[in-house]
């Protein structure tokens, strides 16, 4: 049984469907990449998984629990976390952001988590009293990542972690992700940057609201047709 | 093939304009004839004044999204512009009315920067602006111009019939203006701005200029209405023409009927002002309560006004 | 074609709503067929003027019920007694609404007698309508001097002198006491500002210049700083001219400040003593000065209608309300109407007006001597100055410091 | 004269800062202007007046009664109105109109229940002693009011900056979308802040007759406008901003009464217009149209 199991999901705005018949699984502890161009429906899928958009039809199951109708806060308590493109609350201090990420933890556990994250990411400790708005773009991504880790989720939904980052920072981001591979939460990463395929366990390709391909990164590499059609790669 | 489609579209367009034209025509005929049937001209007159004000609010709120709580400021300035023209410049009534409208438009130019504000900021700031205008007019320091707290006495120019006719004309012109704006490309540009100002600006629509034009037009409507209203009263205090309830009623009538349409404010004014006089006169104790509840219910269940009940089924409403 | 249906609906609604506004116009009654005298008036059940308007209206309706008990009012033109019927609408203190309602009374209800609502603001809009429709306006308490012009015979002020006359007694008293340091704060509305003007000009005529004379907005509700500023001028007399709300706020601030002046004067404790006792407490009006109005002011010589004591008793019995100045003012209006109808030779509005002029000066009611000038403005019924004493139970009494019959 | 105006302006300002606090919180968290704010203030005043005159309850006790009672009223109003409003097409505008309707309803109900006469509390309710400072004396009621206001503002500050729920409130103020995406209980937070905002409005109302003389059912809208001006002058969502706004208002009002008395009524309106027109971006980034 997969950690996250999505079956025949339809999501949209008003009566219009943006996603049609999406089926997707994420196994515990794996990194799954959701590839797709702008407007393919990646963010819509993540938002509906997080409960930020209403589902028209279909089912979302997290580890045997049907979460299709739950609100975002209930999903966080069930073990989901969502790293949006913005990712932080700019007006709050770094430490407050971390506290927000661990909102449902006990006070002691929250303090413990913050201490361990400060050890892993010392830049956050340095800036802990500063508002998040004073951080650079890369530092904000790190904070956003630390913020979702705070709640000790089982599955992290990442929306375009590479957006707005310099190529150097993208590499750093991938490295940080790799340190968490296989001994931490599972990841579902929505991206259009194929660099994120490196280290991924499984890939889905989303186009125009539908899954066009699924398989390992190697399978994708072998499928010249998909590569050419969606990524202009040859 | 394409040609016939164009002809069809053209026919539909003309048909719609014809239906639109029915409204000012009915307004004209209705208010011109009703004094012969119904003796209390004051009610008819005020219904017209509120209808014109409701159309002014409609123009501003329905087409640009600015809700002017302080709309009465323009109304009061119109009344005072008229009174000053009569008292100090010895203008005849009709010319004084035009002066009232113009003064109102000039004040609107001074307050143009308010359009930089959005939502509640605009609504409450416009209220503050109206309070400022009212208090400046009534201050003793202005006694040689506005007669300060003593109010205006224009009994020498009191002319109920002429002012009634002037009100009919201004109301019809106002209605026609709203029809034109709604059906011209300018109106569609306004709607685009209202929906999404950023995209509209990128599509090359002169956002600031379009809004400013509507702002001035609605100020002119309120100014002319206020001027005729003051003329019709001929004795008034600053409180009378700067009464906040005037804005409130005009806004409620517009919202009740349905903003962004031509019919909405007309319908809203007839129904609610009629109710106000039918129920309100005998027992207004509960009238404020009723229309307070009506507003709450409207916002929650029918934000488009009663017109939207008809529009909902895909019908065209002028 | 839905839209035509809507427009049709709108037209129906228009006519329906207008029909709802009143009965359809009837033809003007001829003198012969008159079965009752209709008196049209407005009252404000809510809004800024409700406090004053409602007791005034009770006074008038009390008069009507009293007169109907005796078989009606004697109408000389008909040589018989005719019952009185009051037609009244609620204007909610809005001058705009009042306009349509005055018009309704005249054009739809065709009332025989038109009576204004309380105060200048609600009376003002009736003045041109009454003049245009040639209806005599019985103006009860609208004291604005500008209403009364030589060219307009269609107005008569019944129950108060015009506001410019009020400060006569006050100026007289201040001059008599030899106060040279006088501080005045007034609300900038026509009622108070015109009193300030009269007072200052009368003082100046006696070579007294007030040490402090400033206007404040009528909405002012905190007077502490103003009072502090006034006390810096070391005044002997502190005079506050305002509406009831201003007077309440002023007296409250005065009490809290602990300042003491030889004389403190406000207008409304003399008219609405109970309001002041209940809102600011009896001690805050104790030893202050005011214009005592009926019932604090009683006239020994009453030649028409009830005297104050009789009115107090009968009014309380009939309505359950206690007497205040405004209920007396409303009752007094009724008396003036009664006298007018019994004097006039016809029900024509101008002959009503002539009748009023004829008995002007000879009528003494519980509101004083009724006397109007040629413009219809009240010059009798002047108010003296008095000093208030209260006991802890809230009983208010007054000691006159100028002659009540001046 | 100057000292007295200044000190009383400060005492007044602290009170008005407190009076605006509830509006500020609701505005910050929900981006809705509670146009009925002033009416809740007036209702709080009526609670105090009724409690004192008919039950002889001291206003200090009424402070607690008003807070608790109107906290519950706030909760009762939130659930039928706000969630539906938030899902509508234009929540900001529609909420403005809705609260305007609510304000009309409250005003009408107050007229029906309490009548139209102005009502007040005796200034001697906290005793007749006064406070001497820099050669002037100030009534004890003002001092009590200013102290209560300061305590409540401080408590609100502590709540926002030193509790977990307060942190969530600031997160919602900072970025509602992101707060939702972070899984914060946004709806519950909004409900609590709405209820607190209305509770605080009524609580400040208990003291209001002591500061503004007397109350009647129509006093509400004027108080709402003053409160809005104060919120805009200070900064949104920061209780200390309310204090700054309140002080600016209180001191300008008192100085204006001293030196230009007949124009004093213009103070809140002019301050509001000057701030929104001269410095729109600095103080209120959110209020400006971006096109």
Automatic annotation (TrEMBL), chain A:
<dbReference type="GO" id="GO:0015807">
    <property type="term" value="P:L-amino acid transport"/>
</dbReference>
<keyword id="KW-0547">Nucleotide-binding</keyword>
<keyword id="KW-0067">ATP-binding</keyword>
<dbReference type="InterPro" id="IPR052156">
    <property type="entry name" value="BCAA_Transport_ATP-bd_LivF"/>
</dbReference>
<dbReference type="InterPro" id="IPR003593">
    <property type="entry name" value="AAA+_ATPase"/>
</dbReference>
<dbReference type="InterPro" id="IPR003439">
    <property type="entry name" value="ABC_transporter-like_ATP-bd"/>
</dbReference>
<keyword id="KW-0029">Amino-acid transport</keyword>
<feature type="domain" description="ABC transporter">
    <location>
        <begin position="4"/>
        <end position="233"/>
    </location>
</feature>
<dbReference type="Pfam" id="PF00005">
    <property type="entry name" value="ABC_tran"/>
</dbReference>
<protein>
    <submittedName>
        <fullName>ABC transporter ATP-binding protein</fullName>
    </submittedName>
</protein>
<keyword id="KW-0813">Transport</keyword>
<comment type="similarity">
    <text>Belongs to the ABC transporter superfamily.</text>
</comment>
Automatic annotation (TrEMBL), chain B:
<feature type="transmembrane region" description="Helical">
    <location>
        <begin position="68"/>
        <end position="88"/>
    </location>
</feature>
<protein>
    <submittedName>
        <fullName>Amino acid ABC transporter</fullName>
    </submittedName>
</protein>
<dbReference type="InterPro" id="IPR001851">
    <property type="entry name" value="ABC_transp_permease"/>
</dbReference>
<dbReference type="InterPro" id="IPR043428">
    <property type="entry name" value="LivM-like"/>
</dbReference>
<feature type="transmembrane region" description="Helical">
    <location>
        <begin position="213"/>
        <end position="234"/>
    </location>
</feature>
<keyword id="KW-1133">Transmembrane helix</keyword>
<feature type="transmembrane region" description="Helical">
    <location>
        <begin position="17"/>
        <end position="37"/>
    </location>
</feature>
<feature type="transmembrane region" description="Helical">
    <location>
        <begin position="288"/>
        <end position="310"/>
    </location>
</feature>
<feature type="transmembrane region" description="Helical">
    <location>
        <begin position="43"/>
        <end position="61"/>
    </location>
</feature>
<feature type="transmembrane region" description="Helical">
    <location>
        <begin position="161"/>
        <end position="181"/>
    </location>
</feature>
<dbReference type="GO" id="GO:0015658">
    <property type="term" value="F:branched-chain amino acid transmembrane transporter activity"/>
</dbReference>
<dbReference type="GO" id="GO:0005886">
    <property type="term" value="C:plasma membrane"/>
</dbReference>
From TrEMBL, chain C:
<dbReference type="Pfam" id="PF13458">
    <property type="entry name" value="Peripla_BP_6"/>
</dbReference>
<feature type="domain" description="Leucine-binding protein">
    <location>
        <begin position="37"/>
        <end position="389"/>
    </location>
</feature>
<protein>
    <submittedName>
        <fullName>Amino acid ABC transporter substrate-binding protein</fullName>
    </submittedName>
</protein>
<dbReference type="InterPro" id="IPR028082">
    <property type="entry name" value="Peripla_BP_I"/>
</dbReference>
<keyword id="KW-0732">Signal</keyword>
<feature type="signal peptide">
    <location>
        <begin position="1"/>
        <end position="28"/>
    </location>
</feature>
<dbReference type="InterPro" id="IPR028081">
    <property type="entry name" value="Leu-bd"/>
</dbReference>
<dbReference type="InterPro" id="IPR051010">
    <property type="entry name" value="BCAA_transport"/>
</dbReference>
<comment type="similarity">
    <text>Belongs to the leucine-binding protein family.</text>
</comment>
Automatic annotation (TrEMBL), chain D:
<dbReference type="GO" id="GO:0006865">
    <property type="term" value="P:amino acid transport"/>
</dbReference>
<feature type="transmembrane region" description="Helical">
    <location>
        <begin position="6"/>
        <end position="28"/>
    </location>
</feature>
<dbReference type="InterPro" id="IPR001851">
    <property type="entry name" value="ABC_transp_permease"/>
</dbReference>
<feature type="transmembrane region" description="Helical">
    <location>
        <begin position="266"/>
        <end position="285"/>
    </location>
</feature>
<keyword id="KW-0813">Transport</keyword>
<keyword id="KW-0812">Transmembrane</keyword>
<keyword id="KW-1003">Cell membrane</keyword>
<feature type="transmembrane region" description="Helical">
    <location>
        <begin position="63"/>
        <end position="82"/>
    </location>
</feature>
<dbReference type="GO" id="GO:0005886">
    <property type="term" value="C:plasma membrane"/>
</dbReference>
<keyword id="KW-0029">Amino-acid transport</keyword>
<dbReference type="Pfam" id="PF02653">
    <property type="entry name" value="BPD_transp_2"/>
</dbReference>
<feature type="transmembrane region" description="Helical">
    <location>
        <begin position="191"/>
        <end position="212"/>
    </location>
</feature>
């Amino acid at each position: 049984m997969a950690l996250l199991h999505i079956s025949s999901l339809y999501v949209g705005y008003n009566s219009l469907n943006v996603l049609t018949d999406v089926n997707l699984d994420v196994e515990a502890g794996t990194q799954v990449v959701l590839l797709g161009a702008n407007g393919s429906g990646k963010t819509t899928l993540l938002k509906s998984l997080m409960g930020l958009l209403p589902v028209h039809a279909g089912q979302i199951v997290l580890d045997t629990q049907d979460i299709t109708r739950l609100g975002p806060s209930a999903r966080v308590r069930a073990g989901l976390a969502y790293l949006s493109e913005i990712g932080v609350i700019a007006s709050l201090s770094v430490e407050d952001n971390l506290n927000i990420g661990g909102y449902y933890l006990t006070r002691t556990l929250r303090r413990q988590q913050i201490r361990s994250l400060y050890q892993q990411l010392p830049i956050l400790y340095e800036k802990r009293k500063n508002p998040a708005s004073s951080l650079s773009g890369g530092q904000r991504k790190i904070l956003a990542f630390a913020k979702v880790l705070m709640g000790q989720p089982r599955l992290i939904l990442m929306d375009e972690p590479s957006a707005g980052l310099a190529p150097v920072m993208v590499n750093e981001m991938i490295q940080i992700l790799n340190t968490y591979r296989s001994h931490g939460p599972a990841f579902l990463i929505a991206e259009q940057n194929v660099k994120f395929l490196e280290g991924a366990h499984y890939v889905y390709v989303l186009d125009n609201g539908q899954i066009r391909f699924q398989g390992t990164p190697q399978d994708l590499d072998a499928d010249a047709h998909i590569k050419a059609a969606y990524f202009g790669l040859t | 093939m394409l040609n016939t489609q164009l002809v069809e579209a053209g026919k539909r367009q003309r048909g719609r304009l014809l239906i639109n034209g029915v409204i000012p025509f009915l307004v004209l005929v209705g208010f011109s004839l009703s004094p012969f049937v119904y003796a209390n001209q004051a009610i008819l007159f005020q219904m017209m004044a509120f209808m014109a004000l409701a159309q002014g609010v409609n123009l501003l709120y329905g087409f640009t999204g600015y809700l002017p709580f302080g709309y009465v400021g323009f109304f009061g300035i119109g009344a005072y512009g008229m009174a000053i023209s009569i008292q100090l410049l010895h203008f005849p009534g009709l010319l004084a009315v035009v002066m009232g409208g113009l003064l109102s438009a000039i004040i609107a130019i001074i307050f143009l920067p308010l359009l930089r504000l959005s939502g509640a900021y605009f609504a409450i700031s416009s209220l503050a602006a109206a309070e400022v205008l009212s208090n400046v007019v009534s201050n003793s320091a202005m006694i040689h111009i506005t007669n300060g707290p003593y109010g205006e006495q224009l009994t020498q120019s009191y002319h109920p019939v002429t002012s009634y006719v002037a009100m009919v004309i201004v109301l019809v012109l106002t209605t026609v203006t709203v029809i034109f704006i709604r059906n011209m490309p300018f109106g569609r540009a306004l709607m685009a701005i209202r929906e999404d100002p950023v995209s509209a600006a990128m599509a090359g629509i002169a956002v600031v200029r379009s809004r400013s034009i509507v702002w001035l037009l609605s100020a002119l409507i309120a100014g002319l209405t206020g001027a005729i209203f003051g003329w019709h009263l001929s004795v008034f205090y600053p409180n009378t023409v700067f009464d906040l309830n005037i804005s409130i009623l005009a806004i409620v009538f517009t919202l009740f009927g349905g903003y962004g349409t031509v019919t909405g404010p007309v319908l809203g004014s007839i129904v609610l002002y009629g109710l106000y006089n039918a129920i309100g006169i005998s027992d207004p104790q509960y009238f404020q309560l009723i229309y307070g509840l009506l507003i709450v219910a409207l916002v929650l269940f029918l934000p488009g006004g009663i017109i939207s009940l008809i529009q909902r089924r895909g019908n065209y409403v002028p | 074609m839905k839209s035509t249906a809507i427009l049709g609906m709108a037209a129906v609604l228009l006519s329906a709503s207008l029909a709802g506004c009143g009965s359809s116009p009837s033809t003007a009654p001829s003198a012969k067929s008159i079965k009752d005298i209709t008196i049209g008036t407005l009252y404000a059940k809510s809004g800024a003027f409700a406090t004053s308007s409602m007791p005034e209206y009770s006074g008038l309706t009390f008069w009507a019920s009293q007169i109907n008990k005796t078989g009606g009012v004697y109408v000389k033109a008909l040589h018989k007694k005719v019952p009185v019927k009051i037609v009244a609408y609620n204007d909610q203190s809005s001058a705009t609404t009042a306009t349509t309602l005055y018009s309704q009374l005249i054009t739809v209800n065709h009332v025989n007698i038109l009576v204004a609502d309380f105060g200048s603001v609600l009376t003002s809009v009736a003045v041109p309508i009454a003049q245009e429709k040639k209806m005599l306006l019985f103006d009860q308490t609208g004291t604005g001097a500008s209403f009364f012009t030589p060219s307009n015979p269609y107005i008569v002020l019944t129950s108060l002198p015009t506001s410019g006359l009020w400060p006569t007694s006050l100026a007289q008293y201040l001059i008599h006491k030899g106060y040279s340091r006088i501080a005045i704060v007034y609300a900038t509305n026509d009622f108070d500002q015109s009193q300030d003007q009269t007072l200052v000009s009368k003082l100046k005529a006696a070579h007294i210049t007030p040490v402090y004379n400033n206007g404040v907005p009528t909405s002012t509700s905190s007077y502490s700083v103003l009072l502090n500023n006034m006390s810096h001028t070391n005044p002997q007399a502190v005079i506050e001219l305002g509406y009831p709300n201003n007077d309440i706020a002023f007296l409250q601030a005065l009490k809290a400040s602990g300042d003491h002046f030889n004389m403190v004067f406000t207008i409304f404790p003399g008219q609405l003593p109970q309001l002041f006792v209940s809102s600011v407490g009896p001690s805050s009006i104790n030893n202050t000065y005011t214009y005592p109005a009926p019932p604090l002011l009683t006239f020994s010589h009453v030649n028409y209608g009830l005297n104050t004591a009789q009115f107090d008793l009968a009014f309380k019995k009939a309505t359950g309300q206690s007497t205040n100045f405004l209920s007396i003012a409303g009752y007094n209006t009724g008396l003036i109407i009664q006298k007018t109808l019994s004097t006039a030779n016809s029900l024509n509005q101008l002959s009503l007006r002539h009748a009023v002029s004829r008995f002007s000066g000879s009528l003494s009611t519980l509101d004083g001597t009724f006397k109007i000038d040629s413009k219809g403005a009240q010059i009798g019924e002047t108010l003296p100055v008095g000093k208030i004493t209260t006991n802890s139970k809230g009983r208010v009494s007054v000691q006159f410091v100028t002659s009540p019959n001046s | 004269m100057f000292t007295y105006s200044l000190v009383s302006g400060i005492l007044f300002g602290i009170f008005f800062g407190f009076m605006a606090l509830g509006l500020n919180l609701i505005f910050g968290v929900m981006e809705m202007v509670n146009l009925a704010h002033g009416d809740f203030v007036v209702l709080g005043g009526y609670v105090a007046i009724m409690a004192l005159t008919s039950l002889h309850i001291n206003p200090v006790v009424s402070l607690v009664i008003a807070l608790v009672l109107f906290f519950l009223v706030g909760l009762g109003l939130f659930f039928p109105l706000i969630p539906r409003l938030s899902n509508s097409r234009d929540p900001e505008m529609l909420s403005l109109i809705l609260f305007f309707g609510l304000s009309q309803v409250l005003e009408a109900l107050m007229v029906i229940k309490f009548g139209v006469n102005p009502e007040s509390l005796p200034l001697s309710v906290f005793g007749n002693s006064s406070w001497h400072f820099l050669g002037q004396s100030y009534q004890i009621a003002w001092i009590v009011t200013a102290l209560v206001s300061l305590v409540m503002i401080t408590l609100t500050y502590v709540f926002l900056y030193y509790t977990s729920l307060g942190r969530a409130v600031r997160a919602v103020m900072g970025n509602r979308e992101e707060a939702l995406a972070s899984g914060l209980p946004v709806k519950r937070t909004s409900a609590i802040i709405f209820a607190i905002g209305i509770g605080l409005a009524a609580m400040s109302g208990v003291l209001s007759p002591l500061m503004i003389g007397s109350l009647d059912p129509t006093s509400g809208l004027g108080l709402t406008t003053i409160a809005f001006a104060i919120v805009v002058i200070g900064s949104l969502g920061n209780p200390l901003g309310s204090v700054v706004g309140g002080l600016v208002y209180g001191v300008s009002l008192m100085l204006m009464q001293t030196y230009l008395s007949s124009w004093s009524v213009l103070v809140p309106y002019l301050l509001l217009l000057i701030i929104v027109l001269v410095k729109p971006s600095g103080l209120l980034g959110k209020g400006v149209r971006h096109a």
